[in-house]
Amino acid sequence: MNILISTCSQGLIYAILALGLFITFRILNFADMTAEGSLTLGGSVCAVLIIGGMNPILSILAAGLAGSLAGMVTGFFHTKLKIQAILSGILTMIALYSINIRIMGKANLSLLSKKTIFKLVGDTQISNFLVGLGICAVLLLIMDLFFKTRLGVSIRATGDNEQMMRAQGVNTDSKKILALMISNFMCAVSGALIAQSQGYSDVNMGTGTIVIALASVVIGEALIRKSSFIYQLIAVVVGSICYRFIIFLVLNLGMSPSDLKLFTAVVAAILLSLPTIKKIVTRSVKNAKN
Description:
Structural class: mainly alpha
Distance between the termini: 53 Å
Shape: globular
Number of domains: 1
Radius of gyration: 19 Å
Number of strands: 2
Strand content: under 5%
């Protein structure tokens, strides 16, 4: 039971990261690589502030704001300097590596003896699960409400058809920047929670997180196919929890932890290519019948 609750807790924390990537990859149709840097940025800022004596809850909010600034930089590169979307994210991500080391003063910081949000509520498996569930539920609800407003709908429309929105006089550049700021806010909050959960912040903790988030999104979409926006968000959370269970099962089957990133990449590639595989199989079956 403890393993079950612990796995769900980790899935909920990473679900916040997946929700952030859902905004850029699915809503905005923007290949944002900033997430790997902004997740670490959130962990770094949160760790430094907690060590400095700040309340862990306020530290999470401050980490989120730092992440939103990283998203704003990526948006500036793309919209104002006309750098390609994926290169804009890569540039910010590379810069954040040095910035994160500057913030922490070294490659990692320990939080084992410090008061974290999980220790505030008892630091048991159930309390950790409730904290993750509460934060994830609040952010999911805020996202659902925001993207139903006029501003949120305009962001979604920008991702669907940017040229049409420009023809209607909408400033799509500002919508992109705002979406990137919200996305990286979520990624940084996830990083802050991961740092508090594992008891340390490390400069390499964001490596491979984009693939993890994408795998969560795709798994969730495969399990929950309803088109309602709230169900799409719930699917991301469910996909993240399912992904953590898959990792748990794979490790128990004897896979080396060093092979997890390879496994994640293979799973994500298979899931992302499923529509193409289905078309090929359907075409082959039709040809065989003919």
